[in-house]
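Quick one:
INPUT:
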């Protein structure tokens, strides 16, 4: 039997936790993206944070955009600073990147900050009032007949 790895989907989607828990044993194809490295963490019941390692990028070099349910983060260094001496080894990658995250319905970007080479993007899932669970009172006796009469009058 063939096994699949769903971990790439965990890394590129936010808010689909139950779906991926159900499909965890199946899998996905990794598209080979590994730069820049990032984490997705749950910071509250309906709050998430994406943290991306963007060493060498300034706020002007980064752009964050949402369109429908896709969050796109782009990094494009405008100018390469000339080293003062001869570079013997270049291990800090500062190449252009574009990373996309699929967001679940009702997940909104609340803000972003750049701190110590880490880009933090805060997300929050806001369910509309109509989609939130509500408790239905159970009527009995005279109250039940009144509710039935009201329901029949409406229909």
């Amino acid at each position: 039997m063939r096994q699949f790895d769903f971990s790439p989907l965990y890394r590129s989607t936010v808010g689909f936790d139950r779906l991926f828990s159900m499909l965890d044993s199946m899998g996905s194809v990794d598209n080979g993206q590994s730069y820049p490295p990032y984490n997705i963490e749950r910071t509250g019941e309906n709050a998430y944070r994406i943290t991306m390692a963007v060493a060498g990028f300034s706020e002007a070099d980064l752009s964050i955009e949402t369109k429908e349910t896709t969050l796109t983060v782009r990094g494009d260094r405008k100018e390469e600073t000339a080293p003062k001496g001869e570079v013997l080894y270049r291990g800090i990658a500062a190449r252009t990147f574009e990373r996309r995250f699929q967001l679940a319905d009702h997940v909104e970007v609340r803000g972003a900050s750049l701190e110590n080479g880490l880009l933090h993007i805060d997300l929050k899932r806001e369910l509309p009032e109509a989609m939130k669970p509500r408790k239905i009172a159970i009527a009995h006796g005279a109250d039940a007949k009144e509710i039935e009469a009201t329901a029949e009058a409406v229909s």
